[in-house]
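Sample pair:
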Amino acid sequence: MDPVPNLTRADAVAAVRNPLAFIAARWTPTPKTVQRAALAALVMSVVIVVTGGAVRLTGSGLGCPTWPKCTDDSLTTTSAMGVHGMIEFGNRMLTYVLCAAVGWAIIAARAEKPYRRSLTRLGWAQFWIVMSNAILGGIVVLVGLNPYTVAAHFLLSSGLIAVATVMWQRTREGDGAARPLVGKPVQQMVWFLVLASVLLIAVGTVVTGSGPHAGDSSEVERMPLDWETVSKLHAVLAWIVVTLTFALWFVLKAVDAPKSPLDRTRELFLILLSQGVIGYVQYFTNLPEALVALHMLGSGLVWIGVLRVLLAMRERPAAEVQLPGPAQSGSAVGAGV
């Protein structure tokens, strides 16, 4: 084995000044390592949404009644706070796991050779979204689970999932200019699908804000809307998304599109069908907590599926690098060799 080089004073200073550059100069991850790091960040961005939903569904939203400490006198939960305090504090601790996953993605992207600035920017975007959402989560607690702040908290989490999905996709692509795989009308149809999905998620937060699962057993403010009416609007939007997805798959087959757009569209359609079944069952069974949690997981998977369909409509080859070659004779150049 090669001996481990001694860490000099200059190395220590360089590590303090720019730790990412210091690591990148001494470690080169494989492309698979970078992809796995990006996937870990994406998985954790979905996990934190599901566990946040578990906090609300178990009535533990105010298990830690203040922020950033759990109580006025304790940073962590206490035995007197019971299971609700443990659930809420546990979800807060998962934020650090999420930060670690995002940090790992940033480090892996920064150390990859050749260096790809686009990947590190996507990693840092996730970091700042996590920090912003942590602060917003604290505000949610401080204002007593106000439904509008809860909705904003979820929407920002959806933004995190979007950036994480794009980064994961980009780790498996090059940095060349994007080349469309389908025509302009199909691209416009996909953007309609994305817009309808955004509306579906947004209205879903209104269903939550006006529904029975307020997040705590105390009197919590709800949105002054009729829950059943909003739920029906949510269902209509869901059917629009399903119809657009099926129509997109039909159009892609008709124009003989490449395999990747077809596969991603079929996957999204199957996810939507599963999510629809869960949605209707939970509606007609008075919103059992387990099904609502499963529906929240499905929401994240639907959003990832929609974004993967969008990203599958183009390809990014590796950027062409012009390398200097040996001198050629005039006749060879003229012959195009």
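The radius of gyration is 24 Å.
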